[in-house]
Structure formats: C-alpha cells, structure tokens
C-alpha cells in the first residue's frame, strides 16, 4: 500500500514545512520590529509568537519521524492511529458537525452585529468571538467522543 | 451489514488485538466491526476476507437498508 511508505515521509514533510514557516515568521517579526516604531511591537511579537508555536509543532513532527526510524513499531502504531479508516471517518463526521455549528453561530453573530451596530463594546465583541471559537472546538471534541462511543 | 468476523476470529484463535495488527486497523475498529456498529470500506472488507482466505460474501452479509445510520 502506498500509504504505508508515504506516511513517515508525510510526517517529515509536515515537520520541515512547519519549521520553514516558523523561521520565516520569526525572522520577519524580528526584522520588522527592529525597523518599525514601538507601537507596532504587539503585532511583531504576535507574528513571532505564531512562529514559535509553529516551530514547536514542526519539531514535534520531526521528533516523531526520527523516533519512527529508531523504533519501527512506533511507526506502525502511529500509522494505525492516524490512518485507521474508522477513526478518520469519525474525525470527518465530527469536523462536519463542528463546521455546521461554527457557520451557524457565526451567521447568527453577524446578524446580531447588524442589529446592535455600534452599541456593543469592543470587549464584549472580543468575548463573543472567543466563545464562537471555543464552542466550535467543544462541538468537535464532544462529537469525537460521541461517535467513538457510537461506532 | 452483518459479518462473521467474531466467529472467524475465535475459530482462528486470534485476539482482537492480533486481528487488528494483522489488518493494520485499531482494536476499537475490530470491536466495532464485530458488534456491527461500523460498516467497513470495500477495501477493508476485501482485506478481511483475504486474511481469512474466504470470498467476501462469506464474511460480510449485505442486508437491505443496512447502509443507513452511518
């Protein structure tokens, strides 16, 4: 099967890709912050922060790749965990639920923003957006747990 | 869709984990298949049948309407 041979390569590719993206973001953040006025610092720090996050995820992928080379049974376990057709199907279905929930709530929030335009303080708007993101994630996780139990 | 997976596994003196390893799926998938909660893809169905050296219709029994619910 192609998937078998491709899987470790895909893990390594994701790792290098994330590290490359991280380096670009971190370097860009550093260069821009050195040459721009102080008020841009929060934005450049945010860029660097995203870069550091991507770097950590990329290193984790590469660590997995090298541990596969040292321990082939870890590769089989990880491949089964990530490519098992039932698990994939459950993830797709959970993602679909989260997507439907996310767009419904976003649409309702858009309608609400039209009704109350200008009357909601920025803080409340921020909390509203945060709740949409977090609740979408919760729907995804609850769906995963539910479908794992059901199927 | 019904199947004879559990019957075949027991007959061949295999544990669920051993069968899962042989088929390269998770143990939960074998459990779900045996309990009829999950219908496999045609590829996995063929892999199962080939593993037990049987025709696919001797392992999986199609029933009208069994595709519902998944």
Q: How would you describe the overall organization of this protein?
A:
The complex is a heterodimer of chains A (151) and B (70). Chain A is mainly alpha-helical and 151 residues long. Chain A has helices spanning 2-35, 41-70, 72-83, 85-115, 122-150. In chain A, helix 1 runs antiparallel to helix 2 (41-70), helix 2 crosses helix 3 (72-83) and helix 4 (85-115) runs antiparallel to helix 5. Chain A starts with a helix and ends with a helix. Chain B has 70 residues and is mainly alpha-helical. Chain B is globular, with a radius of gyration of 11 Å. The mean pLDDT of chain B is 90. Chain A binds chain B through residues 76, 79-81, 84-87, 89, 148, 150-151, and chain B through 20-21, 24-26, 28-29, 32, 37-38, 40-41, 43-44, 70.
Low-confidence stretches of chain A: none
Biggest sheet strand order of chain B reads: 1-2
Strand content of chain B: 5-15%
- Tally of DSSP β-strands of chain A: 0
- The DSSP helix count of chain B reads 5
Helix content of chain B: 40-55%
Q: Supply Rg of chain B.
A: 11 Å
Biggest chain pair interface:
A-B, 12 and 15 residues
Low-confidence stretches of chain B: none
How far is the first residue's CA from the last residue's CA of chain B?
11 Å
> What general outline of chain B do the C-alpha atoms trace?
globular
């Amino acid at each position: 099967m192609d998937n078998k041979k491709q899987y470790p390569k895909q893990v390594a590719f994701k790792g290098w890709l994330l590290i490359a993206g991280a380096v670009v973001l971190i370097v860009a953040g550093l260069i821009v912050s050195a040459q721009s006025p102080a008020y841009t610092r929060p934005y450049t720090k945010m860029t660097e922060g995203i870069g550091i996050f991507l770097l950590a995820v990329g290193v984790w992928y590469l660590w997995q790749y090298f541990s596969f080379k040292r321990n082939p049974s870890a590769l089989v376990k990880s491949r089964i965990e990530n490519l098992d057709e039932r698990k994939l199907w459950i993830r797709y279905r959970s993602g679909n639920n989260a997507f439907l929930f996310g767009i419904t709530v976003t649409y309702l929030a858009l309608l609400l923003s039209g009704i109350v335009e200008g009357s909601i303080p920025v803080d409340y708007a921020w909390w509203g957006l945060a709740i949409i993101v977090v609740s979408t994630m919760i729907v995804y996780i609850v769906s995963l747990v539910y479908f794992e139990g059901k199927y | 869709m019904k199947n004879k997976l559990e019957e075949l596994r027991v007959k061949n003196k295999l544990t669920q984990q051993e069968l899962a390893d042989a088929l390269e799926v998770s143990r939960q998938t074998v459990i779900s298949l045996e309990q009829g909660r999950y219908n496999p893809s045609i590829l996995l169905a063929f892999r199962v049948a080939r593993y037990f050296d049987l025709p696919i219709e001797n392992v999986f029994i199609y029933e009208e309407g069994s595709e519902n619910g998944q």
